[in-house]
Amino acid sequence: MTIGVLGAGDPLTAMTMVGVWAVVYGGCRYVSVASLAAAMAIPLSQLAWHRPSPDVMVGAALALLIVVRHRGNIQRLLAGAEPRGLSRRQH
C-alpha cells in the first residue's frame, strides 16, 4: 500500500524503494528486512531527489510508522525465528 501512495505522489522515491527492496531481498531473502530497508530509504531518497523539507519529514514519519508496524518481524529476526522468502504474508 505504501508503494502505491508514494508512486502516485513521488514516483522517483517509489522507484528507489522498489530498487532497495529488490536488492536487499535478493541479498538476504527476508521480506521483512527488505521492507524495513525500503522504508528507511523513503526519507533518504527524498533528500537525494531534493524534495521539499515537509515531504522529507512526512517520509521520515512514514518510515517510522513502518518500522513500528514491523516490530513483530524485528523481534522474530533478533530471535532467529523469522521465516525467509515470499511465502509468508507480512503482518
- Main sheet attributes: strand count, strand direction, barrel closure: none
**Can you tell me the residue ranges where pLDDT is under 50 for at least 5 consecutive residues?**
none
Distance between the termini: 13 Å
The run of helices and strands is HHHHH
Shape: globular
Please report which band the strand proportion falls in: under 5%, 5-15%, 15-25%, 25-35%, 35-45% or over 45%: under 5%
Mean pLDDT: 91
Number of helices: 5
Helix content estimate: over 70%
Gyration radius, to the nearest Å? 13 Å
Task: Find the structural class using helix and strand composition.
Answer: mainly alpha
Kindly state the number of beta strands.
Answer: 0
What report would you give on this structure?
By secondary structure, the chain is an all-alpha fold. The chain contains five helices and no strands. Helix 1 packs antiparallel against helix 2, helix 2 (11-28) runs antiparallel to helix 3 (31-48) and helix 3 (31-48) runs antiparallel to helix 4.
